[in-house]
Amino acid sequence: xxxxxxxxxxxxxxxxxxxxxxxxxxxxxxxxxxxxxxxxxxxxxxxxxxxxxxxxxxxxxxxxxxxxxxxxxxxxxxxxxxxxxxxxxxxxxxxxxxxxxxxxxxxxxxxxxxxxxxxxxxxxxxxxxxxxxxxxxxxxxxxxxxxxxxxxxxxxxxxxxxxxxxxxxxxxxx
Length: 174
What we know:
The protein is an all-alpha fold. 83% of the residues lie in helices and 0% in strands. It is elongated and about 50 Å long.
């Protein structure tokens, strides 16, 4: 493996760990607002548990592969929770619009990573493939739960997707 390949894989692990951490914070914000009183809360709790398992696996990879985590974790902690809480305050459909938008970008992001990896890192490829499938399930569940009925859905979705792309680029490097 070249130094460039090693740096690219380290960036993948760094950004994926940061993204999974951000996802846990988004769901924490949504659940803080919705509590367990809303029917969608059970679905959110299930997705949150999967994201926590994803984060834990990437936490382990950070240690195993001696990858420097992103320095932006404190920002993603606050931003993720705020995004989750704000969308839940708008309503359950907006919370689901948030999930759908985030998972759309994560699906694309994981797809790009899988293309870059090819067959060069079977362990990382397997992890990303599994997590990508679960993220697509989250997207589909959010759409089925009424994401597109959220007020201002096209604008809300576009803004969240743009924010995700920015967070990905920043976390790869910082």
